[in-house]
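Honest question from a wet-lab person: if I give you the sequences of every part of a complex, can you actually get the arrangement of the whole thing, not just the pieces? Trying it with mine:
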Amino acid sequence: MSPINYKALLATRIEQDFSKWLGQQHVQEREVYRFLHTMKGTAGTIGLMELSEFCGTQLEFFAEDSTALLPVDSLKTFMSTLTAFFTLENPHLKSAVEESTNEGYPAKESFVLIIDADAEFASSIKEALEDQAIPVVIALNGKKGMEFFYTLQPQMVILDLHLPDVDGFKLVTRIYEAAKSRYLPIAMISADDRIENRIRAMELGATDFLSKPLDMQFFVPYISNRLRNQEAISQGTLYDELTGAGNRKYFNNVFSQMTALSERTRIPFTLVLLDLDHFKKVNDNYGHPAGDEVLQTFSQLLLEMKRKSDYFFRYGGEEFALILPDTNAQTAIGLVDQIRSAFAETTFSIAAFDPFQVKFSAGISEYRMKQDTLVSTADQALYQAKKNGRNQTIVYELTDSDLRRQLTIIIIDDDSLVRSLVSKQFSSWKPDDFDIYLVEYADGASFVESSWYKPDENYMILLDGVMPKMDGLEVLHHVRSNYPHENIVISMLTSRNNESDIVLALKSGADDYIVKPFYAQEIVARVQRLTMRMFN
Amino acid sequence: MNIYAFWILNAILFLGQLILLLFLAWRKQKLTAKERTITEQYDALTDVFSSYMMDPSDERFIQEIHSASHKGVVLERLLNGYVSVTKGSVTSPLVAKLSEDFLTARYAKQLMRKSWAIRMNTLYFIEDFHMQSLTPLLKEKLRKTVRLDQETQQLIRTLASLNEPITISVLAQYPDAPVRLYIDVFKRLEEHSSLEELNAALSEETNNKALKHAAISYIGMAGLIAFLPRIEKELQTQDVEIRIQALKSIFHLQYISDPILLTPFFQSLSWQERMFASQIAGRLQLSRFKEVLSELLGDSVWWVRYSSAEALTQFSDGDILLTHLSAYHPDRFARDMATQWKSSLLGSEK
Amino acid sequence: MHTFFLILSYVVIAYMLFSSLSYLGLFFLAFGKVKREDKLDRRESTEDFLRNQNTYPVSILVPAYNEEVGVVSTVRSLLALEYPEKEVIVIDDGSKDKTSECMIKEFNMTQIPFAVRTHIQTAQINSIYQSSIFPYIRLIKKANGGKADALNAGINLSSYPYFCAIDGDSILENDGLLKTMKPIIESDGQIIVTGGSVRIANGSTISRSKVEVIGLPKNPIVLMQIIEYFRAFLIGRLALSHLNILLIVSGAFGVFNKERVIQAGGYNKNTVGEDMELVVRLHRLLREEKSKQRIEYIPDPVCWTEAPESLEVLRSQRIRWQRGLFETLWSHRKMMLNPKYGAIGLFSMPYFLFVELLGAVFEFLGYFIIFGGFFFSLVDPNIAGVLFLVTIFYGSLISALAVLLEELTLHKYPKVSHLMRLYFWALTEAFWYRPLMVIWRIQGIFAVFQKKAHWGDMKRKGISS
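Yes, you can. This is the full assembly:
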């Protein structure tokens, strides 16, 4: 590394901060203050004295604790002076500043989900925000909140710490991963604004913590700030540039969220795969710009015609996908048919060519069990549609083989008492819709060597982490690399209270872990929950 | 020197050995047979034991254990296995019932045995099974002890697990009682008692340094944030070791009410204080200390250099600072340390 | 001439009687402690440490030179160790075989950039790997520099305050490390080194790194080595440890305080007995500082190792040991009989000089005189007879006693037939095994003056099936 590299690093860091600011229209005063403060210190320590002094003088113009919003435009001079310190080393920085200022993001309709048991309070917020054209949806309890979170795709969640049915913190934990993948801000609100609660909220992944009563004067700009930010980031990363449909990454996120939701709530959802017929010919005959126009027009139509809660993605090339929450296959057919007739009225005219039309085929599959199967069944249906002569919709039909009615619980532990205690617990579990078989192994090696696996059955493996002969992690590796994933659920029984080992087990493909010592009853409850997805 | 004397010497020794050999062989035979029976009974009872523990109305286990020839050992092993794998067994009425019914008399006798190992094992088991009924006996035993040997230490731990705060005052009678043992006691006492004892340990009038030391470090270990003001107060004390413990505790609590409190420790004469101050500054990302951390990178003590570099990596611009310091810090060792941590940052990203 | 041999005979007799008695004396010193802990529940006495945050983390160093057969099973047994926080560092000391390749393949290792702190200078380190399955397993590939150098490299890379060195051909029992660390933890760090007892694995059934059935080998050479281990560990080391004058922590298994070792300068590359040499150096450091810290030996945790089965390999091993002992005693001769070094200087060093090192010379003279006395009337046959009896006493009966004492205290071998076989083989010691050892040990003394130190070139067949 050359000795001046740290300057470049610093320049990049500044660039990042600035482009973030430029992405929003306002910056909080104290954020600017903090930026300058850090910069002063860092620049001072790394020997950029002029920069440090400049930051020092600038500091006097900003207040440390002010939450006032400064328009980004007013900061431009100061920003360009700052970047000028680096222009010699880093000429592209300045242009980056200019470029991104010109780039505006389309204002898309975004709405806020409020989860609060206090209906009066929630509706007062709704009123205030809707005055500013920000739609609001209210959920009065955690369960409803979860449901709305997944089905309605809000752009922001505000939730109260105290909910009638579930702890607010728990709710944050549950939605955090999904929220993160959508860059969705979560604000916690509570009258109980003790520091522990604030810390906890931050630790669990909430974006902000606001104390009740809210200062409405601040609250509205705060919400629009967060929404702008969320939009700016997700536009850049979750949407396909050409068509404005969600990209593949976004598809994967939404898909797994929907799967999770469906598993918990048993609310159905449906996947539609759409493929433009003979698209290659469009490109060959009329040129790529024409192809692009077709894709754009098709997407535009879909975005207009889909219901608000539906998701639309460009799955790849000329293949698109719709995820329809709370919708069964029958309803999906209706929607696709409407789209088909609307698209049939669309004519493309390219200079020097005759006008032409494009058709599409669609495959539909309703969610039953597993992600892989859903996508592949929809794909099979789509293939069938193509094979049947294109321009049609096919729904994937369930066959009997999809219903599996047996669960083998395998307990692998070198301690005979553990095996006995655990299997005794299961003896009282007699589910209606499938049978339970219990198998015990005293060590990993004898399990691995045995012929335990039959392709059409479902397995729940309770695996001791530390065993002689063959370590539990090794057994885990063996199972995950030699057998399919979807019909084998693995939970590690581990006495290692070492976090890294648990992380390791989860990374290596364990679905869950149970720390020894455990509550014997807890094991059964966990197994029931883990295996539910195989029998829904 | 008479050769016969040597013959006789060898012969006697050889014969003596033969007798010993035969005795040992006989003993081995017997022990093996006994162990085999115990294992057989254990295996035979595992299943009904599990059923009983799940549903005590299934009384087959009680009937069968009565007829087992080694019921004490077998039950001890079963219960020991049970408490080590299941949670909440400390308060399990079944464990209490079985151990009180079958083991109380046996353990009361064993505590008086001559064999040190047997007494030790018994103390371990009483702790594991939470046998309240033996508390008076153990307290009596504790009253009679004069030395803080391994057995007394375990006796104190066992009593602490039965929630007897008296153990702290007994420990305090031994001036050389190790800090570790006090911590063991705090860990075992029920929450209510341990909070009370911690409170007392931190109060002004205690002169017991080991106790105070243990209390401070236990608070950090257990994350008892409510004690933070008390811990912060200890930062002002004259006693270096206590101050170091307080810093360590703050490091574990990951919280400090006012960072200013840390300032003097960066210039402390004790390197441990400088080290912990650096670690805290890093852990809590107190950016006001960035400059002093850069200075400490050139400290004369390796640990301080190490910790300050580690602390710098915690800041968002740590890589920049370290890159700079690795090139421009006036001290050669500081540059080396910065280089090492800079590359460790790169390493962790890959 | 006659008189000379007569005097010599008396000297040898006196010597043997004296050392036999000192063996017995040492044993009785150790007996109490071993016997006392015999019935202690190992699990109970260590389980608290397993959950304790104050249990110091340990780096496990596995130096390996041409160990492709055994290294993977050693590391696997280390994974099963019950210990809250540990890391395993394998040091491939420029092996010519596939030691590194085996590790990389088995544990899915990838090369990582890593800044190694150079506490101790070592040969060039080529690359460092980390397992993607178990991130706490690392592998150092370095240029060849000998076992001591490999261990030093491991110390440099280790990140924990204690390290334990284990040979690439050994297997450690599940709770071995916890039990070894117990004295260190309980003494709040006052104990800076603990050595654990080493057992010979030949004959036991070991399947995938776990000792399943303890058994005895058929090969008498190995059987005799087992008896020898009893004699050395039970009688010698335990008592010496009790007196804080333990000189050897076996190269096969020991836990060290890293800071202290670095302070002492790490392992010495110029001796073949680097483990003993380091312990002596640490003792010296402690005495010179007048420190209260100690070095301890515990009889219990069991580390299993493969003993040589052929005479040839055994010979080179013994020559190496003897050389190492000599080199150590020589380089620390300043401590010999020096009251400044307390019991170490006054007792331990002379003990090792006269009993362990020069014992071979006296015994050789003994055999020489017996032979000469009976066949060439070098001395009065009566004297030769006495010498003969003393030799049997010293060689066979003491060893047989060691077997009985093992049974009395630790009784690790499960069957009565094991005990019988060990006992009767021990009785034969003076007639064939001991003379062999004597000759090799004398060769070892001469070997000191020959060439430079290197790894032993034992042929491994691997102890795990």
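Two things worth pointing out. Chain C has a mean pLDDT of 82. The longest strand of chain C covers residues 294-305.
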